[in-house]
Amino acid sequence: MLYRKITSYLEDYVKSDTDKILILEGARQVGKSFSIREVGTRLFQYFVEINFVEDDEGEQLFKNIHKKEDFYLTLSMVAGDKLSGRKNTLIFLDEIQHYPQYLTMLKFLREDGRYRYIASGSLVGITLQDTTSIPIGSIIRKEMFQLDFEEFLIANGFGSDALAMLRHSYENHQSLSEEYHNHVLNLFLRYLLVGGLPDAINTYLETHNIIRVREVQDAIRNLYADDASKYEKEHKKKLLIRRIYEMIPSQMENKKKRVVAQDIRGKKGDRFSQYQEEFEYLISSGISLAVLAISNPRFPLSESLQKNLLKLYLNDVGLLTGLLFHNNIRPVLDDIRSINLGSVYESVVAQELRTHGHNLFYYDNRKQGEVDFLVDDHTAMSVHPIEVKSGKNYTEHSALNNLLKNPDYNVLSATVFSNEREIRQDGKITYLPVYLVMFMGANSLQTDDSEFIF
């Protein structure tokens, strides 16, 4: 069974005294249901799971219920004797966005306090916008992502001492030995191929066969696209969600790497604002990561947002390398000079930063250039720029230099990630091996001066 960090959060929640109901949000296939099910069956005498999508495709017992009394009656019918009060019973409402009335009902279930509840779903944010009575004060919203690189290392046999050594390297700016660096970097390159979706990782661990891994990834990517098409039909609008989703890899190969509105339909004059609903779906569903443009970076970045410019990344780097290279693992593992892995490295860094609590922005200035990422350094109350380099010219970053020289922005530190082993400081810039991004949490920034078997 894969180790998931979310497990300790779920354990703390169900053991706490809070009566608020947790909604675990995130993209499909990231492991929400599995994690809740594992904790629920282990810590409660009775665990009752209701999947509203399966209910809608079956007997529809819960579909037209709007009162808690009717819910309790139906629950008792399907759960039988698996109901024994709040202390011993956890009710899991899966895919809660599918029956939106239950989001409103959570308030009344909480007030009644008969059982312990936990819910999960995707598109919860969009569904709440359309909910007539939002259960403010009754819910806790927690976002879950696929396995990050640290969890991938654990899945591959990394022990606590080895992870502690890596964290010490990050926190103290001490380079690893050549042997340790090469070993961790090799696993990082495999993470670029496999990604963090649980089914893909399990398949990799079982087979070490890239064809089998790609089959899993293709199925998930098609599921995401089909969900988008279904959403479009349900809302009876001529939306272009699937079109934009399928454009993301090609957009990332462009020099600017951002979404160009007039490319979506091939019509000049189309504006970013015309596609707000499409972007909202792609971001809220968790199937893509949004990085917003900032031209005048000041802390906090959310108050400096000025442009309707947007970069979209696929939510999982394995999906991206599958689209770019199919079953060929050599472009990623062999450091082929003619292959530009810039979009792949940016994608995995975006994935890691978002997973570790950062809201993502990038620096866009017509005169000064672009910097890959900007995040808030809450400790220093400053903006922290991040550049990602996949090649040997990792010390060349004119836009970053220009940004650091500007006294108006008061940028105290910056990070450049690359494949290089040596950790070193050059003025405000720290050069780090790219795999150490796994320790760059929102509260942990450093502000100090083809084969098929693989």
What does the model show?
The chain is globular, with a radius of gyration of 23 Å. It has 19 helices and 13 strands. It has 454 residues and is α/β, with parallel strands linked by helices. It starts with 5 loop residues before the first helix and ends in a 21-residue tail after the last strand. α10 (178-194) crosses α16 (317-325) and α11 runs antiparallel to α12 (210-234). The longest helix is centred in the middle third of the chain and has 25 residues, at 210-234. The chain has an eight-stranded mixed beta sheet, with helices on both faces. The chain has a five-stranded parallel beta sheet with strand order 2-3-4-1-5, with helices on both faces.
What key attributes describe this structure?
454 residues, single chain, globular, alpha/beta, 16% strand, 19 helices
Structure summary, number of beta strands: 13
First-to-last CA distance: 21 Å
Q: Would you tell me the structural class of the helices and strands?
A: alpha/beta
Helix content: 40-55%
Radius of gyration: 23 Å
Spatial order of strands in the largest sheet: 7-6-8-9-10-11-13-12
